[in-house]
């Protein structure tokens, strides 16, 4: 196996063709008992063998198991960083034709390079006097196309070890790189144009989704419009996609994160504030009361309720079912917490199957403030006579008919 591998930009990555052997030496402050240490040693041996057979995912799994048992080991971190870089490098060199006809699942090359950089930085914090930590960090930065930073790391490593052949070869590869590319990657500040704005919310794209007709929107914006119509908001093409089948565009998302990190962080913070209202809030569906252990289908047509159900399915699949009290023209004092067990999107409406939890939680409703009165056992109801309303029956069944009279 050659010690040199070329990236897509023509730069040669040095020093990641092989990994370090794990020496059987359990001494010092970070020593482990012999039984755990033998397991760490076995995982490292399996990981190194898988790495040398080009089974990099298997190698990463073994290195991660070893790191869980002995965190902060320099050899483990360095070997795992090299394995991350080899997979990232393979994906970067893969031709578009191969990607089209044989798509791969898993992390993308930018994420893998970021994980490699994280391990390399931890290794450098542990061994800042070792040339290998500088080599690994420089290679990770090259894969992330941060060429100026990679050059600075290489120069710092050469100050530590001026005779390192790998560092000198890496520096020569960077110096052979066209100056225009170095300047573009390192110094040019890209202008934020409306090409990266969502045409629905008119804000910076967050979790972009590209439709089959070629238009890109924020994921939440697209599916919110599809609650009203299953057509593309721009060209009106009928879309046969759903939240479970439509993934975020990895390429576009990486471009945005890498070139506009500040705008992306601000947009992410705004999105998190909108969806995280608090842990004590539960959505309420005002329709009818639910008998414990009852299961029934619920057909939803209105866009606002379709949006509500979609957000519930993105969370814990639970909501509160409550009846409207005609006497006060407001929601009743008690509700039943139900769980959506299945959701089917059919045409212009959604159909969901609801089932009450076996551990029913009744909640006193005062606005959205609740107190918990949990019933641990569910009794089987063989027969019952309904009262004036289903709510009256449920409250009487729970033995709190005095509340109804009040």
Describe the structure.
- The chain is 44% helix and 14% strand.
- It is of the alpha+beta class and 406 residues long.
- It has 3 domains: 4-186, Tetratricopeptide repeat domain (Serine Threonine Protein Phosphatase 5, Tetratricopeptide repeat, Alpha Horseshoe), CATH 1.25.40; 194-275, Herpes Virus-1; 284-405, Archaeosine Trna-guanine Transglycosylase, Chain: A, domain 4 (Roll), CATH 2.30.130.40.
- Strands 5, 6, 7, 10, 11, 12 and 13 form a 7-stranded mixed beta sheet that branches.
- Strand 8 and strand 9 (330-331) form a beta hairpin.
- Residues 1-8, 356-389 and 400-406 have low confidence and may be disordered.
Features:
zinc ion binding, 13 strands, Archaeosine Trna-guanine Transglycosylase, Chain: A, domain 4, 406 residues, 7-stranded mixed beta sheet, alpha+beta, Znf_RING/FYVE/PHD, Herpes Virus-1, disordered C terminus, TPR repeat, Lon_prtase_N_sf, single chain, 14% strand, two-stranded antiparallel sheet, Serine Threonine Protein Phosphatase 5, Tetratricopeptide repeat
């Amino acid at each position: 196996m050659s010690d040199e591998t070329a990236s897509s930009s023509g730069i040669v990555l040095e020093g990641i063709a092989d990994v370090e052997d794990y020496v059987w030496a359990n001494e010092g402050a970070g020593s482990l008992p012999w039984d755990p240490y033998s397991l760490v040693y076995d995982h490292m041996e399996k990981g190194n063998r898988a790495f040398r057979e080009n089974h990099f995912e298997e190698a990463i799994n073994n290195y991660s198991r070893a790191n869980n048992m002995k965190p902060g080991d320099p050899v483990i971190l360095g070997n795992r960083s090299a394995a991350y870089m080899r997979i990232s490098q393979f994906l970067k060199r893969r031709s578009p034709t191969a990607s089209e006809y044989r798509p791969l699942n898993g992390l993308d090359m930018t994420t893998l390079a970021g994980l490699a950089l994280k391990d390399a930085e931890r290794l450098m914090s542990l061994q800042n006097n070792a040339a290998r930590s500088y080599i690994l960090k420089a290679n990770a930065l090259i894969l992330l196309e941060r060429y100026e930073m990679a050059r600075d790391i290489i120069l710092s490593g050469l100050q530590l070890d001026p005779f390192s052949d790998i560092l000198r070869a890496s520096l020569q590869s960077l110096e052979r790189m066209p100056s225009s590319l170095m300047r573009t990657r390192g110094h040019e500040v890209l202008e934020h144009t409306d090409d990266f704005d969502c045409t629905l919310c008119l804000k910076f794209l967050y979790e972009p989704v590209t439709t089959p007709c070629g238009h890109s929107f924020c994921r939440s914006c697209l599916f919110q419009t599809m609650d009203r119509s299953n057509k593309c908001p721009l060209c009106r093409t009928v879309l046969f996609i759903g939240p479970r089948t439509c993934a975020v565009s990895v390429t576009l998302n990486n471009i945005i994160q890498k070139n506009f990190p500040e705008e992306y962080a601000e947009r992410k913070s705004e999105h998190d504030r909108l969806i995280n209202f608090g842990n004590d809030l539960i959505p309420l569906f005002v329709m009818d009361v639910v008998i414990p252990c009852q299961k029934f289908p619920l057909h939803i047509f209105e866009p606002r309720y379709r949006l509500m159900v979609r957000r519930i399915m993105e969370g814990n699949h639970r909501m509160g079912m409550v009846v409207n009290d005609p006497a006060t023209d407001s929601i009743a004092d008690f509700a039943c917490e139900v769980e959506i067990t299945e959701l089917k999107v059919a045409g212009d409406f959604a159909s969901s199957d609801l089932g009450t939890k076996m551990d029913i939680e009744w909640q006193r409703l005062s606005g959205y403030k609740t107190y918990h009165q949990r019933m641990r056992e569910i009794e089987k109801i063989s027969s019952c006579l309904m009262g004036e309303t289903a709510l009256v029956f449920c409250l009487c069944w729970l033995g709190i008919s005095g509340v109804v009279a009040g």
